[in-house]
Write a structure and sequence with these properties.
By secondary structure, this protein is an alpha+beta fold. The protein contains 11 helices and 4 strands, in the order ααβααβααβαβαααα. α2 packs across α6 (about 100-125). It holds the Pfam family Nitroreductase. Keywords: Flavoprotein, FMN, NADP, Oxidoreductase. This is Oxygen-insensitive NADPH nitroreductase.
């Protein structure tokens, strides 16, 4: 494997960071690398909030479910899907802009995710650790108010960046045979069952927080409960009407 593929395969989440700070110059390089990601029709439908105020970071850590590393990492970013900028740009160019389309929500969300992943790869190539924070969607309105997000902008997730203060194992992924299907969709139950056995072994052998569970068992909360049922109404309130 070449070094880029090796780097990608070595990804793991980091939740403990040293006191060493990322330089402003490096952070800017990471953001520029993020901007080089693919973007639908060159819309670039994202904005990134660099949360520097310690009090705001503490507040977001609490809103996200008590994730203290939001406050202790070197830098914390909030990636936002942003249809405000492109819609206003189109209007200045003479368009009678229609807002609130479902496709606009999808474009902006995908754009933000693609940009963030470029930032992550660039960060890890510099020896940094990262942790995505989906928990900001636990209280998206409070986060939006805190960050002064306007209509047609919503916080998709956060990202902790910093120099790692822990060594953690790489979490296994489903086998390629379960993901890569030839010509048509097909059942992959046998691969899932084998993967469950592998995940049980991983959880029992890893260096911290061992537990006796499987991938399938970890999925149950996502489907047994209505996860973040507030999100649809929140998105509509932000101008993403999903028309």
């Amino acid at each position: 494997m070449n070094p880029v593929i090796e780097l990608l395969n070595a990804h793991r989440s980091i939740r403990r960071f040293t006191d060493r700070k990322i330089t402003p110059e490096l952070l800017r390089e990471l953001i520029q690398a993020g901007q080089s990601a693919a973007t639908s029709s060159h819309v670039q439908a994202y904005s990134v909030i660099h949360v520097k105020d310690p009090a705001n970071r503490e507040t977001i850590a609490e809103l996200a479910g008590g994730q203290d590393y939001i406050a202790t990492c070197s830098d914390f970013l909030v990636f936002c899907a942003d249809m405000k900028r492109p819609a206003e740009a189109a209007e200045r160019a003479g368009a009678d802009a229609t807002r609130g389309m479902t496709e606009q929500l999808l474009v902006a969300s995908v754009d933000a995710a693609l940009m963030a992943q470029n930032v992550v790869v660039a960060a890890e190539s510099e020896g940094l650790g990262i942790c995505y924070i989906g928990g900001i969607r636990n209280n998206p309105q409070a986060v939006s108010d805190l960050l002064h997000l306007p209509e047609h902008v919503y916080p998709v997730f956060g990202l902790c960046l910093g120099y790692p203060d822990q060594t953690s194992e790489v979490k296994p992924r489903l086998p390629v045979e379960a993901i890569l299907k030839e010509d048509y969709y097909c059942d992959d139950q046998a691969h899932v069952e084998a993967f469950d056995a592998s995940m049980r072994e991983y959880y029992q052998a890893r260096s911290n927080t061992q537990k006796d569970t499987t991938w399938s068992q970890n999925l149950t909360p996502l489907f047994e409960h209505k996860v973040r049922p507030h999100m649809r109404d929140f998105l509509v309130s932000r101008g993403f009407e999903m028309k």
